[in-house]
Amino acid sequence: MRVGFVITTLGFGGAERVLSLIANRLSYEYSVDIIKFDNQKPFYEIEKSIKIINLPALNGGFLVNLKKRFSKIFALRKIFKSSKYDIIISFMDSTNLLCLMANLGSKQRLIITEHSHHSLLSWKWKIAKRLLYPLCDGLSVLSRSDYQYYSYVKNRSVIYNPFFGDIDGKSQDRKENLILFVGRLENIKGCDIFLNSLKYCNLGNYAVEICGDGGEFKRLKDEFSSDKIKFLGRISDIQSHYKRAKIIVSSSRNEGLGNALIEACFYKVARVATPTIGACELICDGEDGLISDDFSPKSLAKKLNLVINDENLRDKLAKNGFNSRAKFGLENIYQDWLNLINKAIK
Predict the structure, then answer these.
(1) In terms of domains, do 200 and 88 share one?
(2) pLDDT at position 14, please?
(3) 215 and 93 in one domain?
(4) Which residues of the chain are modeled with pLDDT < 70?
């Protein structure tokens, strides 16, 4: 089977990491190409057997600069025809629309993937997806909420993001009084909500590490950096931080499915989150994590104080999260992907 993945870039990001993991796993048994729209080196490790095809970088919004957009469509169409893939898998919504248009009139099978929640869509995107998404042969979404929303796509499946790393539980013995934030420093990720919540927390001897980069990095660092709060920027070896941490906070304003909340399970890190769709999908409040009542810093601080001050609660949340990790294992997620692919190519 020949598989072609399509994504804008293979830089730092959740969707990029998921594609890398799934493409690598498929490459053990099948022929895999990755098509992307830049010339940058992939941030995540890619198996040597995988062919990476770089198309010219063409910037601009979907409805802006039609000439460049049509150039992308024609370039994709040419590759699709010449490569004769058994299945094409597109990552991210803008790439989904480009691939669907490039594949018009073709008999090649195409799976598209969603990595953000539908509530973020503008009316233009809603119309575009309603018109084009039914043309795909399969759709992968991250939550039951999105599964219901995209009811106009027949072959769809909820497939969680996979984890790949240390899952034996032996590296969890030396925990520190450390609270992590892991994610891009952009408004939607809500790091400012977390940092402002700390004003209402009794941190005691806890330290805070902010692992991530983005447009708000300098502003947040200038405003909140202190002896207790360190801004580490982009981290490639995030596992070493998970192994040390006791608590992780996800304070997104909107999140389809947060990789950090999945990864934390494997390292016995207690999870505290704002009430996004993704967090509610992954956490059973009070059992394997805590979810704040709303998106305010005070509400988040209320939950965060509970795990800081109650060691028994913190250990319970971390243990129950760890016990739920199997559903995020790479092999289980890989089987989910194979099932969706097999349905699409029948």
Answers:
(1) no
(2) 79
(3) no
(4) 57-67, 164-173
Same domain, 31 and 45: yes
* Angstrom distance (rounded) from CA 251 to CA 301: 11
Residue 170 lies in a domain: no
What confidence tens digit (pLDDT) does each residue in 85-115 have?
999 999 998 999 999 999 998 889 999 999 8
Indicate whether 117 belongs to any domain: yes
**HSE-up of residue 171 (Cα within 13 Å, Cβ side):** 16
Residue 168: per-residue pLDDT:
52
pLDDT attached to residue 251: 97
For residue 68, tell me if it sits in a domain. Answer: yes
Return d(Cα 249, Cα 297) in angstroms, integer: 12
Query: Per-residue DSSP letters for 60-103?
Result: S-TTS-HHHHHHHHHHHHHHHHHHT-SEEEEESHHHHHHHHHHT
170, 168, 167: which is closest to 329 by C-alpha? 167
DSSP 6-50: EES--SSSHHHHHHHHHHHHHHTTSEEEEEESS-PPPSS---TTS
pLDDT score of 165: 66
pLDDT of residue 166: 57
- Regarding whether 34 and 159 lie in a shared domain, the answer is yes
What domain range includes position 123? 2-163+329-345
**Pair (138, 189) in one structural domain:** no
Asked if 153 and 10 sit in the same domain, the reply is yes
Q: What is the pLDDT of residue 253?
A: 93
Flag whether 171 is in a domain. Answer: no
In whole angstroms, how far apart are CA 250 and each of 1, 128, 129? Answer: 39, 31, 29
| Residue 55 confidence (pLDDT) | 87
Q: What is the pTM of this model?
A: 0.80
Nearest 5°: the CA angle 249, 255, 260 is: 40
Q: 44 and 103 share a domain?
A: yes
Q: Is 261 exposed, middle or buried (0-12, 13-18, 19+ CB in 10 A)?
A: buried
Per-residue DSSP letters for 241-263? HHHH-SEEEE--SS-S--HHHHH
Compute CA distances 218 → 155, 189, 224, 235, whole Å. 44, 15, 10, 16
